[in-house]
Amino acid sequence: MKIEKIIWGISKNSEQVDLFTLTNNNGIKIKISNYGGIIQSIYVPERNGKIDDIVLGYDKLEDYQKHTPYFGCICGRYANRISNSSFVIDGRKYNLTSNEEKNHLHGGFVGFDKVVWNAEEFIDDKRVSLKLKYLSKDGEEGYPGNLETNVNYILTNENELIIEYSATTDKSTHICLTNHTYFNLSGNFENTIMYHQLWVNAEKYIPIDNLAIPIGKIYSVSETPFDFKNETKIGERINEQNEQIQKGFGYDHCFVFNNYDGDLKHQANLFEEKSGRLIEMFTTEPAVQLYTGNHLDGTFIGKNGIKYFKRIGVCIETEHFPDSPNHPEFPSTLLKPGDVYLSKTIYKFSTR
After folding, report:
1. Cis status, amide bond into 311, omega within 30 of 0
2. Which residues of the chain register pLDDT less than 70?
3. Choosing from 160, 317, 319, 327, which is the catalytic residue?
4. Can you tell me the distance from the alpha carbon of 187 to that of 109, in angstroms, rounded to the nearest whole number?
5. Closest Cα partner for 330 from 278, 286, 298?
6. Residue 67: what pLDDT?
7. Domain limits at 122?
8. 3-state secondary structure string, the chain?
9. What is the CATH number for 307?
């Protein structure tokens, strides 16, 4: 086990930005920056032992600062969307920044993906980890409360990437954190993810309006393109004439896990047959946002100069429901003073 650090660049606020490489005893390497908590690369073997990078991103820090659809970053304070960029707590309305038409997306203009986190390195015989800390101040992007946030990235010798989130606040606020990594298990970013096979432990999903905001209902996945109860190719039904598919321009929907109780559970698999690479996903969260890179259009020039086009990456973002602050019928995302926000997700890498 080891961890290495290089200076990656300087932020727009003249802060030093580092890139850390976490390596386990099996040769798996994960590169993470303290800028936005970005997972820049994940190197894992395919069935025959060949090691490739399996996540989208950039070679240079400047590209993340200029033009990125949230490649590999921490999204917060609130991952996903909040309608009309506002919510009410204890009778008081809070207006957030509007960065997607009239709505608030992934924390606003300067969310957790665009700040420099304090980083600490840890290593022992079984794991290597990078603990990131950030104080989001009262009023930042419109949110109430000083929010002390921690994200711990852990790589184990069991080939697990564990992401642990925690936070406390001095005023009641809403919080929903996730990581926005785009996976392509083929290791070739000129291949689409249409042949990746997906299993999700979800019998229901959340339908959206034309701005990708929940309509306030929860639908069954049965007899729809959203049925991944059995392992199914992502591309098998992505082009069906389905109203929800059309509104999302593909999959950009939240799937509600069966029997959620806050415990860590195995909730999804992502598999690519040619390479044999498999990700088993475990989480304490109630849902996962499936996003199939619908808005990648070739203007994003990624690692090694490759243009990223539609369906080149897939995100499986563990989280609470979109727009929960405005839907009391959804699981609550309210964090009060004295309470601790806790969340944990594991991506376990293997082959079959």
Report:
1. no
2. none
3. 317
4. 31
5. 286
6. 86
7. 2-351
8. CEEEEEEEEECCCCCEEEEEEEECCCCCEEEEECECCCEEEEEEECCCCCEEECECCCCCHHHHHHCCCCCCCEECCECCEEHHHEEEECCEEEECCCCECCEEECCCCCCHHHCECEEEEEECCCEEEEEEEEEECCCHHHCCCCEEEEEEEEEECCCEEEEEEEEEECCCEECECEECCCECCCCCCCCCCCCCEEEECEEEEECECCCCCECCCCEECCCCCCCCCCCEEHHHCCCCCCHHHHHHCCCEEEEEECCCCCCCEEEEEEECCCCCEEEEEEECCCEEEEECCCCCEEEEECHHHCEEECCCCEEEEEECCCCHHHCCCCCCCEECCCCCEEEEEEEEEEEC
9. 2.70.98.10
Catalytic residue among 104, 106, 180, 327: 180
End-to-end CA distance of the chain: 24
Domain count, the chain: 1
- Please tell me the distance from the alpha carbon of residue 328 to that of residue 292, in angstroms, as a whole number: 28
> How far is it, in rounded angstroms, from Cα 134 to Cα 195?
38
Both tokens of 34, joined, read: 């303290």
Tokens at residue 174, please? 């809403």
Buried b (16+ CB within 10 A) or exposed e, 3-12: beeeebbebe
Give whole-number Cα distances, 244 to 119, 132, 180, 231, 288, in Å: 41, 37, 22, 21, 17
Q: What is the reported pLDDT for 15?
A: 97
Phi, psi of 209 (to 5 degrees): -95, -170
Q: What pLDDT sits at residue 75?
A: 98
R_g over Cα of the chain? 19
30-77 tens-digit pLDDT: 999 999 999 999 999 999 999 999 999 999 999 999 989 999 999 999
Which pLDDT value is given to residue 272? 98
Torsion of CA 195, 318, 304, 35, to 10 degrees: 180
Distance separating alpha carbons of residues 301 and 67, to the nearest angstrom: 9
Are 33 and 62 in contact by the 8 Å Cβ rule? The answer is no
**Rounded Cα gap, residues 245 and 199, in angstroms:** 18
Known active-site residue 317: yes
